[in-house]
Amino acid sequence: MSKLDKVVHEKYGLNSKFKFRCHKDIKCFTKCCSNIDILLTPYDVLRLKNRLKLSSAEFLSNYTYVKIDEKSSHPHVMLKMKESAEMECPFVTPEGCNVYTDRPANCRYYPVGQGTFKKETEKGTEEEEFYFFVSEPHCLGFDEAKEWTIESWRVDQEVDLYDRLNREWKGLQLRKDLPGHPPINDKKQAQFYMASYDIDSFRNFVFESKFLDVFDIDEETIEKIRNDEVELMQVGFRYIKYVMMLEQTLNLKYDAEKFRKKK
Ligand code: SF4
Ligand code: SF4
């Protein structure tokens, strides 16, 4: 692949090749870490708040802001840049990223971008992933000789883990408000936000409200989510799908008990 000038909207696959290298001695080092929009995923927030030893509420309040997505009215959490002239990322230093091993998925992907679209097939609606490249004038990495495929880049940047853990949530991003219908209300937005990003509040909601009296969650899952934040996050995704009425991802206890009695 030749040097690219900007965001390329052409769709690429896992075997597509490109040349790129990012390293400390390159002239543009850290130039990409200012004045950027970085959408954080739920797993990004988990990794970062644990890295910084903060509660989810502290992390969200100190390092993020909320942007309401125009098409879905979902609240999205964005990384807040510094209020300086350069608008640097709060984690960039002259030596590089100081949360590097826990950096967000979007930083890992760069200069590759990933998208998903829905297509109609004989089997029904299917989701297909594609890739694109982002080439900004300040980024000199494309002038370097190191060759990659998108697949080898993904392995090197460890994005598989992020994609696997965020997959269900990313699927939710394809939901759009119906034309002519009102956007989702404040209550649903608050539920979406809590279950996506504020894991400590979601844990309190699960264990200290009537959640476990209302929903039929098996004992094994309950034990897992007491101490495992990733498992709890996955239950959060099921909860969002349920409240958005996208899928029957949770069953009401009352219905489950009635069903068991009938058997
Ligand atoms: S999190 Fe790290 S890699 Fe991402 S923009 Fe900030 S400093 Fe750069
Ligand atoms: S601008 Fe490009 S090459 Fe330079 S540090 Fe950022 S990603 Fe690396």
Fold and architecture overview:
- With about 260 residues, the chain is α+β, with helices and mostly antiparallel strands.
- It folds into two domains: about 5-170, no CATH class; about 185-260, no CATH class.
- About 40% of the residues lie in helices and about 20% in strands.
- It has helices at about 40-50, 55-65, 105-110, 150-155, 160-170, 185-195, 200-210, 210-215, 220-225, 230-245, 255-260; strands spanning about 5-10, 15-20, 40, 65-70, 75-80, 90-95, 95, 110-120, 125-135, 145-150.
- The chain is globular.
- Bound molecules: iron/sulfur cluster (2 copies).
- One iron/sulfur cluster binds next to loops.
**Helix share, percent:** 25-40%
Number of domains: 2
Could you give the order of the helices and strands? EEEHHEEEEHEEEHHHHHHHH
Bound molecules: iron/sulfur cluster
Layout of helices and strands, plus pairs?
Layout: E1 7-12, E2 17-19, E3 39-40, H1 42-51, H2 56-63, E4 64-68, E5 75-79, E6 92-93, E7 96-97, H3 105-109, E8 112-121, E9 124-134, E10 147-149, H4 150-157, H5 159-172, H6 186-197, H7 199-208, H8 211-214, H9 219-227, H10 229-243, H11 253-262
Antiparallel strand pairs: 1-9, 2-10, 3-5, 4-5, 6-7, 8-9
Helix pairs in contact: 1-2, 5-10, 6-10, 9-10
Bound molecules: iron/sulfur cluster (SF4) (2 copies).
